[in-house]
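Consider the record:
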Amino acid sequence: MPSLRIAKAFYSVLHPGCWRALANGVAPAIEHSGVLRSLAVDGVLDVGANRGQFALACRRCLPEVPIVAFEPIPDEARVFLKVHGRPKGIELIETALGDSNGEAVLHLSRSADSSSLLPIGKEQVKLFPDTAEAGTLTVRVQRLDDLAGHWTGRTRQLLKLDVQGFELSVLKGAKLTLASCVHVYVECSEVALYEGQALRADVQAFLEEQGFRLAGRFNPSLAEGCLVQADYLFSR
């Protein structure tokens, strides 16, 4: 949305801690600030980190909380490192996540943050024309549970997921990791935008089985008066 882009740019100009990011074309995801400030957590798992927008918002709202971020697209990961560097408290792991280890084809969108391990569907392109497929890339896929050594000892983590329809697969590979989390903040769709994706109801049912309950809905995206997708906070 143009108004949100303007607000992000204005925020970045006013805060010197964002100038390095702004110089690299990245602004903090300030639309998540209210949620982040409300949480008491000892770690953030940023799945689908893209260029570091969410991590930048975390640094503004939760400055002392360590972040482990995951991004499989090399070009986006390079920008993430330009924005954040490799400071103590922020770690970037360049991999996709799922329910098994191996390799998979990533469908690259013209808008990189809409890329997915699932084929981009017709409804996605209809509603968001700038997100059509622009190519493919073979990437490494790992289970989140197999990377738990990167957050040993943390017991009150926030798991953030923005993986374009692949949320349920990531969660199925993270059952042990979820035991270290008290919040899951996940972008979910109410209509199928990617081929074979799980919808919000499927993700919610899985998380409820793991002891989480829906705590709020944020940043809704509407089309023709109907809810298409939103960010959902699940807590326990």
